[in-house]
Design brief:
The protein has helices at residues 3-13, 28-42, 60-73, 91-97, 108-117, 134-137, 143-151, 170-176, 210-219, 233-250, 279-288, and strands at residues 18-21, 53-56, 81-84, 103-106, 128-132, 158-163, 182-185, 225-226, 257-261, 265-269, 294-295. By secondary structure, the chain is an alpha/beta fold. It is globular. The structure holds adenosine-5'-triphosphate. Adenosine-5'-triphosphate binds at residues 1-2, 5, 22, 24-30, 164. InterPro entries: DEAD/DEAH_box_helicase_dom, Helicase_ATP-bd, P-loop_NTPase, RNA-helicase_DEAD-box_CS.
């Protein structure tokens, strides 16, 4: 077990509310997925019991990854689970079946859409609420959705919050009606929230030389896959296009751009095609790049 799993599972299995903080890639996902499965299993949750747990994730892509873990870890259980995220056209079919699902993994907006629109959508028996990347969900961007969601959930429930940074904001905790929560911060002494094996280098470069420097860096790391983070879509199109010209003119190698927008949306943009790609394409891009060596 990882540190966060060892620290959180005993408390969580006893029914405590948890505020868990641990570095990225420290095994938080498995910590709450195991708890959800175990809790519902102990309660002998069955198909007729409806929604037993809701796991909220700030983005569609992260929700999709959680769903994959749930499918893999929970394959020997009989629970039904659904991925409720925006960007899909089958919302009417979702509405027909959502009440039959035991575990929902969702983004805040899609969950709220079901709460508002799906006839007889019933979470009144829900046992466990999980907020993954809780710091982002508690952020003001999701305030309206989260308040509306919480107001429709049963007060008597177990609530688990997991993120890379700990929240102790009284306001946040009051909004979620946590009961005497356990604060678990397994990497409190760490200087950064990223894994120690991740090598991080900063280069301070005059503005007018930044693109040349990036280009030289790319050329000297041809064996690596490289993610380039830029501040906005506009910047991504501009600088990405310029780099693409460099690559094309010199015919050095094939280049694609992975552009992160709003810090949480990852998608690939081909030259001359800077429109928003479909969710399926974004998911495919993420899957394709899951296990490659990346240079950031
Ligand atoms: N107990 C374990 N033993 C071995 N590997 C594990 C264990 N728990 C999780 N892992 C693996 O560690 C990797 C990172 O786990 P996970 O994605 O759950 O981390 P995380 O803390 O949720 O990351 P993030 O902050 O990015 O959401 C995954 O590949 C997962 O399969």
């Amino acid at each position: 077990m990882t540190d966060i799993q060892r620290a959180s599972l005993p408390h969580a299995l006893c029914g405590c509310d948890i505020l868990g903080a641990a570095k990225t890639s420290s095994g938080k996902t498995l910590a709450f997925i195991i708890l959800v499965l175990e809790k519902l299993y102990r309660e002998r949750w069955g198909p007729e019991d409806g929604v037993g747990s809701i796991i909220i994730s700030p983005t569609r892509e992260l929700a999709g990854q959680l769903f994959d873990v749930l499918k893999s870890v929970g394959k020997h259980h009989n629970f039904s689970a659904g991925l409720l995220i925006g960007g899909r056209k089958d919302v009417d079919m979702e509405k027909e079946h959502v009440n039959e699902l035991n575990i929902l993994i969702c983004t805040p907006s899609r969950l709220l859409q079901h709460m508002d629109e799906t006839p007889n959508f019933d979470c009144s028996q829900m046992q466990v609420l999980v907020l993954d990347e809780a710091d982002r969900i508690l952020d003001s961007g999701f305030k309206r959705e989260l308040n509306a969601i919480i107001s429709q959930l049963p007060k008597c429930r177990q609530t688990l919050l997991f993120s890379a940074t700990q929240t102790k904001s009284v306001q946040d905790l009051a909004r979620l009606s946590l009961t005497d929560p356990e604060y678990l911060s397994v990497h409190e002494e760490s200087v950064t929230a990223t894994p120690t094996l991740l090598k991080q280098i900063v280069m301070v470069v005059p503005l007018d030389q930044k693109l040349d420097m990036l280009w030289r860096f790319i050329k000297t790391h041809l064996q690596s896959k490289i993610l380039v983070f830029l501040s906005s879509c506009k910047q991504s199109s501009l600088q990405g296009g310029r780099l693409y010209e460099y690559a094309n003119n010199k015919l050095v190698f094939k280049i694609w751009f992975l552009i992160v927008r709003n810090k949480n949306k990852l998608f690939r943009v081909a030259r001359h095609s800077f429109g928003e790609p479909s969710l399926r394409r974004k998911e495919k891009t993420l899957r394709e790049n899951k296990n490659v060596k990346l240079t950031l």
